[in-house]
């Protein structure tokens, strides 16, 4: 029987990791990203585990966000998970990201990928929810609102009306992410949908605390696509 040389295993006693080398690799080959660290809003109710739905500061996330910080990450590494739904099988928008040593993103932290563009729809309410919830709006390509015909009484039908976005008399004006209404004939409380071109955005869901041999390692996080948190999936709205 061969005898193992104990001296040959000495190099395995401690894991050698150089954060500066890992940072250099990310700077050279990583994915550009903007990180907005999250803290829970003061309206968060511990008993229900939910924010106040009437809070104007944090709706609908329950978190407040710091200014974006440019960085580079390893990822997105797609998570190969499928989910059965009534219409068939859909791939969820989950991905893994690895951050530089020392960056510890909290639950709910938002991660924007400026090199990735997607089209999304945001459902808002005039006079109550007039801020687009993606971090960056590159273009507003279309929009519509719904109204009852007739406005009161029964029977009635719901009518979809396109929003006028261009020309001398647009229904709305958008500055950054804020929607300003120019058409006063549309009453407050009207539900409307905007189709926007934006950057792909994830929220940190689960964070892996990584230590080895007493040394802090890069943190790795599961991110969920922002639209998963805003819109219903399989009859249920996800909450952070």
Task: Write a structural description.
- The chain is mainly beta and 240 residues long.
- The protein has one domain.
- It has two helices and 18 strands.
- β5 and β6 form a beta hairpin.
- The radius of gyration is 23 Å and the shape is elongated.
- The N and C termini lie far apart (57 Å).
What distance separates the N and C termini? 57 Å
Residue-averaged pLDDT, rounded? 80
The share of residues in extended strands comes to: over 45%
Indicate the low-confidence ranges by residue numbers: 87-91, 232-240
Question: Major sheet, described briefly?
Answer: 6 strands, antiparallel, barrel
The number of helices is 2
Rg is 23 Å
When the domains are counted, the total is 1
Assembly category? single chain
What is the approximate shape? elongated
Number of strand segments: 18
Given the helix and strand composition, which structural class is it?
mainly beta
Order of H and E elements: HEEEEEEEEEEEEEEEEHEE
Read across the widest sheet, the strand sequence of neighbours is: 1-4-7-16-13-8
């Amino acid at each position: 029987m061969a005898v193992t040389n104990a001296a040959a295993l000495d190099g395995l006693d401690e894991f050698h990791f150089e954060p500066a080398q890992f940072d250099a690799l990310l700077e050279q080959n990583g994915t550009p990203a903007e990180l907005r660290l999250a803290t829970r809003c003061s309206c968060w109710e511990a008993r229900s585990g939910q924010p106040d739905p009437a809070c104007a500061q944090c709706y609908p996330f329950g978190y407040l966000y710091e200014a974006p910080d440019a960085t580079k990450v390893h990822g997105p590494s797609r998570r190969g998970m499928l989910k059965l739904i009534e219409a068939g099988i859909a791939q969820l928008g989950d991905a893994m990201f690895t951050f530089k040593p020392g960056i510890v993103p909290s639950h709910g932290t938002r991660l924007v990928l400026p090199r990735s563009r997607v089209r999304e729809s945001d459902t808002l309410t005039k006079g109550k929810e007039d801020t687009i919830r993606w971090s960056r709006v590159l273009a507003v390509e279309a929009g519509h609102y719904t109204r009852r015909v007739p406005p009161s009484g029964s029977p009635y039908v719901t009518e979809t009306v396109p929003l006028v976005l261009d020309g001398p008399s647009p229904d709305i004006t958008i500055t950054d992410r804020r929607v300003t209404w120019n058409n006063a004939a549309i009453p407050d409380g009207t539900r409307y949908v905007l189709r926007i071109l934006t950057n792909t955005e994830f929220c940190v869901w689960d964070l892996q605390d990584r230590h080895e041999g007493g040394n802090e390692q890069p943190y790795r996080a599961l991110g969920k696509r922002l639209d998963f948190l805003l819109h219903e999936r399989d009859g249920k709205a996800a909450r952070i």
